[in-house]
Amino acid sequence: MTNRYKKDIKYWQHWEYDEQYDRFICPNGKNIKFKNYSTRKDKYGSIEPS
Q: In a structure prediction context, what are the per-residue pLDDT tens digits for the chain, which is 50 residues long?
C-alpha cells in the first residue's frame, strides 16, 4: 500500500468503528450507519463480497 492510500479518508478501512451503535465514524466526524451487505459478480460469474 502506498502512503497516499493510507492517508486517504475516502476508504472505510481508515474509519473508526463504534461497535455499540453499529456505525463508522469518518475522519470528518460524521456518523455513517451500516446499511447492508452486498455481493457482486464479476464478468466470469464469480461472486465476491463487497
A: 666 656 677 777 878 888 898 888 888 888 888 777 777 777 777 766 55
